[in-house]
Amino acid sequence: MEMDNNLLTAMVERWRKETHTFHLLEGEMTITLKDVAMLTELPIDGDAIIESSQKPLNGWGQFISERLGMNIPEEAEEGRRVPPLHKSMLLIPWLVRTVGELPEDATDAQIERYARIYLICLVGGFLFPNKSGGNMHCMWLRVLLGDWDEIGRKSWGSACLAMIYSELCKCTDPKTKQAGGPMFILQLWVWEHLPTFAPICPANSWGPDEPLRQWAYGARWIGAITSGTSLDGYRQHLDRLEFNEVTF
């Protein structure tokens, strides 16, 4: 779906880090763990994702080489100033380009490596993106290159909500110009609970056999195009938001 930066900016301006809530005309609201679970179906039970950001004894390059069988170059690619692995940050596009396409006669080892790289892209590039242009902190690799069952037992939904709260709090600083994290979840939440700001929902035109009906509830917004409302337009509407415009 298309991201509505004006809408997100207007909501950030209403965020109060003291209470972790949006202050609106009719009261306070916030995104909850239940919202994340409903919209994404990410697990909210299980172990907390708590990993050390310290480098392994032999460095991240050796760590990646041993688990993915990929040697990371020490020189920067053309058009970039730093190599794919720099200061504990891994360049995800380099990882994707290097692995290429999965051959039809792939071995089990190749399939497993592709699956792990898919998870790295999903986590580092979609669920927990930062503001560094496609880089992911290598601390995530301790989870994603570990035991498969352990990965599935993690509370990924809780981690998403924690990062949303963290990024919203950082954005209360006027000097902050961008936000990282899964802001798409926040946008889905606004569209669901403040439907007056939502575009036309693509799910309204789905047929009974639409495969997306089997996905998470938030999938009904796949393909949605934002309204094009300006930042001032959202601000003014939030200033006069009425109780009957809020869905609980």
From TrEMBL:
Q: Which domain of life is it from?
A: Eukaryota
- Cross-referenced Pfam families: PMD (PF10536)
InterPro entries in the record: AminoTfrase-like_pln_mobile (IPR019557), MAIN-like (IPR044824)
Would you kindly state one Gene Ontology biological process term found in this protein's UniProt entry? meristem maintenance
Question: Any idea where the Aminotransferase-like plant mobile domain is?
Answer: 2-247
What protein name is recorded for this chain?
A: Aminotransferase-like plant mobile domain-containing protein
Write down the species.
Linum tenue
Give the classification, highest ranks.
Eukaryota, Viridiplantae, Streptophyta, Embryophyta, Tracheophyta
